[in-house]
Amino acid sequence: MSILAPIIVFGLIVLIHEGGHFITAKLTGMKVEEFAVGFGPKLWSRRRGETVYSLRLFPLGGFNKIMGMAPGESTDPRAFTERPVWQRLLVISAGSLMNIFSAFLIFTGIFLAVGVQSFPNTPIIGTVMPDSPAASAGLRPGDRITAVDGAPVRQWTDLSAQLSRKGNRVVSLSLERDGTARTMSVIPEDMGEGRAMVGVTPALESRPVGLGEALALGADRCVFVLKAVFYGLGALVTGESADVAGPIGVARMAGAVAEVGAMQFFLFIAILSLNLGILNLFPIPLLDGGLFFLTVGEALCRRKLPERALYYIQTVGITILVGLFLFATFNDLSALAR
Q1: Half-sphere exposure of residue 194, counting CA atoms within 13 Å on the CB side?
Q2: Among candidates 35, 37, 33, which has minimal Cα distance to 14?
Q3: What is the pLDDT of residue 335?
Q4: I need a labelling partner for 311 at 20 to 30 A (CA). Which of 64, 109, 110, 222 fits?
Q5: What is the spatial distance between Cα 195 and Cα 163, in angstroms, rounded to a whole number?
Q6: CB 142 within 8 A of CB 164
């Protein structure tokens, strides 16, 4: 799964994004010459009607080759540059909007499937993380922790306090399993600053929700994630944080999340899809947002941008994107080295 999960994540998100461009281009009468998932050499391709569908070697992207996307490429009535402005703006923004909408559907579907979960603050284990100290010690979901080194644990929040400053030390856990008292030894992982972790999460209580509430909760979760995206970008700009993950980091996270469970995996896809959707709308040249604002500018000025100006704008865009890619990749490699 650590190998397949990143391929599934990147492939699905790209398929959703490019599918938005493809569907709206077709609906507005534009000619789509190729629909590709991935970059690089073709692994598979097939022509259906006027469009070639292809799967390429590197799944970190994709594209729609729409007739007339390049300036001066075609004067055919079905070419992108010859279509009305509103149609071009719809096609440009459809990829990001589809990413946002798909995330909303995933969140809504999960709320419908599992309901709303609450934290009762009881010291009952809900999940045991793979390859964690708890897993090595033999702890199981459903175990009720009653004491740490003899100190009582009456609620879940007591557990972290009792484990404080006990990292990399043998700790005695008293617990109840199926009505029987047990004692187990575990060595918590030292997380720094006095914090220690054994690798368990609390048991949560769930209540079912109807379609209307699930839709409202799905929308609320989208807003929450989008706020977090903007907060992270603000922290990056002000220098408060440099925590940016590139393709390597995302691939590692995808593999780790896939090992936890299907629901967490789909939540990860939804969050990543939202990130791609909103970031791609930023007015950076070469991204959809940059093309969107250029198209609006041409419509307001009622004249096309000179090719030399477009060249310089695209050069700036390439510089920004390459810089961000190198910065994110450096962070990924630094994380691998730690």
Answers
A1: 4
A2: 37
A3: 63
A4: 64
A5: 7
A6: no
Distance from CA of residue 16 to its chain's centroid?
A: 13
Is the distance from CB of 283 to CB of 297 less than 8 angstroms? no
pTM summary value: 0.74
The pLDDT of residue 229 is 84
Tell me the pLDDT band of 336, cut-offs 50, 70 and 90: low
* pLDDT tens digits for range 284-297: 777 888 889 888 88
Instruction: Map residue 20 onto helix, strand or coil.
Output: helix
| CATH tag for 125-203 (out of 2.60.120.600, 3.10.20.30, 1.25.40.10, 2.30.42.10) | 2.30.42.10
Q: Which of 160, 325, 194, 335 is nearest to 253 (CA)?
A: 335
List the one residue out of 63, 59, 58, 49 whose CA is nearest residue 21. Answer: 63
| pLDDT > 70: percent of the chain | 87
Domain coordinates in residue numbering, the chain: 4-113+254-337, 125-203
The pLDDT tens digits for 79-116 are 888 899 999 999 999 999 999 999 999 999 999 998 98
Residues labelled catalytic: 18
CA angle 211, 216, 221 (to 5 degrees): 120
pLDDT over threshold 80, residue 244: no
